[in-house]
Write a structure and sequence with these properties.
lyase, zinc, metal-binding, Metal Binding Protein, Guanine Nucleotide Exchange Factor, Chain A, 1 helix, Mss4-like_sf, mainly beta, 133 residues, CENP-V/GFA
């Protein structure tokens, strides 16, 4: 069994995911664009993995958008996205909160009909290893 450590940005919340991920989706729906402030959310999904809170569980809060299945857990202090169990038997882990390499490539882009208009040109955008001068 694989263990994946993770934390929020401020380090208050620390956790481990024990088990393997089933899928890795890049979601382009408008809800995910709003709650990430970016082009898409990058979430790992697992049906059998277990979430173990190591510290700061009391700093974790959740929000479900009324009338939808859109759910997000995050740190009350720094706002970082954190793992959640929006449905019984389903663990959703934001890829960016893990402190370990993710062993799988994204499974698919989903909800591409609502993709941000500027999201198609990433290959043409210059790349820098750090902040450009």
């Amino acid at each position: 069994m694989t263990n994946y450590p993770g934390a929020c940005l401020c380090g208050t919340v620390r956790f481990e995911v024990h088990g393997d991920f089933d899928s890795f989706y890049l979601c382009h729906c408008q809800h995910c664009q709003k709650d990430t402030g970016s082009a898409h959310a990058a979430n790992l999904f697992a049906k059998s993995a277990r979430l173990i809170w190591l510290s700061g569980e009391d700093a974790v809060t959740s929000f479900t958008l009324p009338g939808t299945r859109h759910h997000k857990s995050f740190c009350k202090i720094c706002g970082s996205a954190l793992p959640s169990t929006p449905l019984p038997g389903l663990l959703v882990v934001p890829a960016g909160c893990l402190d370990a390499k993710i062993p799988l490539m994204p499974t698919a882009h989903i909800f591409t009909a609502s993709k941000a208009s500027w999201d198609d040109t990433f290959e043409e955008v210059p790349r820098f290893e750090g902040l450009p001068e």
